[in-house]
């Protein structure tokens, strides 16, 4: 059975937003020498530099930065939302924009189909827009999740539609199509993306396999230069960045 079929038939559609609290994950990042700032190419900034990664994530910043921060996060996770609200602006301005640090977001489908739909919406956007859009989702988490909490019977019925229609209908009923239309992804663009069931299935496979490979079972989980961090709040992550040399 594919991961997508598992999500469809085993995971509840309604959100249980208490399930994503992170556990303690290991030792903090090793201490490092102070890293020198790196200027971006002329006419650009590191915070506007983005690419997709082989692991299925979105990387922002200097791709050769010596300090690499990876967040495994759920787009419906309150703890992930708290990190975004508390720290995203400072992370970008004070660390990524210096060229010392890059940041990669990798989606974890903690809440099954709903996380999958939102992550697919990020794929529908320009690559440089994906992380800012994730921050928008987290800043408006009650709004984004509300459509899935209040529309249960219609959403369950949509799950029975053919693959080419199912995710289009789920996104519309859950309010995602309208939410992202207000943020630059037209309804037509979203519908085309959601109708591509092969791409949706590939996304489910990639995100699930990568989280398993890195032993991620809760969100947010942070890796700093490949090492899991103990803390999950911005103050914890910022302290680890500075210990690693971003100071």
The CATH homologous superfamily = Glutaredoxin
- The SSE string, one letter per element, is HEEEHEHHHHHHHHEEH
* Uncertain parts: 24-29
CATH architectural label = 3-Layer(aba) Sandwich
Which structural traits does this protein have?
247 residues; alpha+beta; six-stranded mixed beta sheet; 11 helices; globular
Task: Describe this protein's structure.
By secondary structure, the protein is of the alpha+beta class. The protein has one domain (3-15, 26-243): 3-Layer(aba) Sandwich (Glutaredoxin). Helix content is 48%, strand content 11%. The protein has helices at 3-10, 78-95, 113-124, 130-139, 141-150, 152-158, 163-174, 176-181, 187-195, 197-213, 234-243, and strands at 50-52, 58-60, 67-73, 101-107, 221-224, 227-228. A six-stranded mixed beta sheet has the order 1-2-4-3-5-6, covered by helices on one side. Strand 1 and strand 2 (58-60) form a beta hairpin. Helix 3 packs across helix 9. It is globular and about 55 Å long. Mean pLDDT is 91; it is low at 24-29.
């Amino acid at each position: 059975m594919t991961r997508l079929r598992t999500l469809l038939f085993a995971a509840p559609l309604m959100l249980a937003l208490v399930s994503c609290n992170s556990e303690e994950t290991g030792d903090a990042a090793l201490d490092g020498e102070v890293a020198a700032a790196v200027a971006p190419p002329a006419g650009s900034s590191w915070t506007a530099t983005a690419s997709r990664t082989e692991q299925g994530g979105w990387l922002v910043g200097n791709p050769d930065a010596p300090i690499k921060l990876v967040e495994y996060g759920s787009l419906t996770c309150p703890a992930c939302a708290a990190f975004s609200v508390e720290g995203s602006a400072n992370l970008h301005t004070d660390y990524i924009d210096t060229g010392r640090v890059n940041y990669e977001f990798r989606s974890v489908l903690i809440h099954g189909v709903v996380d999958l739909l939102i992550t697919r919406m990020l794929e529908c956007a320009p690559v440089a827009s994906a992380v800012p859009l994730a921050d928008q989702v987290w800043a408006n988490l009650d709004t984004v999740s509300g459509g899935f909490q209040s529309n249960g019977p219609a959403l369950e019925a949509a799950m029975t539609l053919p693959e080419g229609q199912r995710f289009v209908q789920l996104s519309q009923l859950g309010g995602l199509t309208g939410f992202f239309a207000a943020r630059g992804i037209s309804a037509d663009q979203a519908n085309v993306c959601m109708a591509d069931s092969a791409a949706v299935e590939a996304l489910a496979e990639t995100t699930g396999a990568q989280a398993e490979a890195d032993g991620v079972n809760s969100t947010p989980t942070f890796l700093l230069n490949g090492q899991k961090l103990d803390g999950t709040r911005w103050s914890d992550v910022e302290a680890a960045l500075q210990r690693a040399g971003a100071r």
